Amino acid sequence: MKRFKQFERYIKGMARYSEINGYDYDDIYQELLMTLDYCVKSYDSSKATFGTYFINSCKNRIARLRKKNRYNFYYLNNDLVDEVIDKGETQDVGDIIEVLSNIEHGDLAIMNIYYGVPKIELARLEEVSQTTIANWVNKAVEEARNVLL
Fold first, then answer.
1. How far apart are CA 113 and CA 141, in angstroms?
2. Interior angle at CA 41, CA 38 and CA 44, nearest 5
3. Residues 17 and 63 both lie in one domain
4. For residue 41, how many C-alpha atoms fall within 13 Å in the half-sphere facing its CB?
5. Does residue 74 lie in a domain region?
């Protein structure tokens, strides 16, 4: 209880300003409370002060969560969805994914737009330039737009 009161402001502040895909404030707050609990149980005073140990543990926990959830986007981050839904053609993202999957380089568009994989990583996978990936993704999105609208 003493440690909680001592670090409560830090935990709340870190939870408020940490952005992790798929996590809201309460989720991050709970993760940091679990980190505090772990630190209280595993603290070794011969290695560092508790504050240093806890703060570094929190930073490491946030970094691990960010890395783990780096590509966990479950929505299409693109104007295509808004356009299609506004036109009343469909309200199901699955329809858009299905159309994209049948278009040349649509799989790259899905990975980039739906899962949030950066174009630079797709370029490494495909062994082409990032500009080429951007052109392929844009072309696939335009073709999907033409099919859906």
1. 10
2. 110
3. yes
4. 6
5. no
Distance CA 149, CA 139 (A): 15
Q: Kindly give the confidence (pLDDT) of every residue in the chain, 149 residues in length, as a single tens digit, with 9 standing for 90 and above.
A: 677 888 889 999 999 988 887 788 999 999 999 999 999 999 888 988 999 999 999 999 998 888 777 654 444 445 555 555 555 555 566 777 788 888 888 888 888 777 777 888 888 888 888 888 888 888 888 888 788 77
Question: CA–CA distance from 52 to each of 7, 115, 130, 132 (Å)?
Answer: 11, 36, 40, 46
* Domain count for the chain: 2
d(CA 82, CA 78): 8
Residue 126's domain spans which residues?
Answer: 79-148
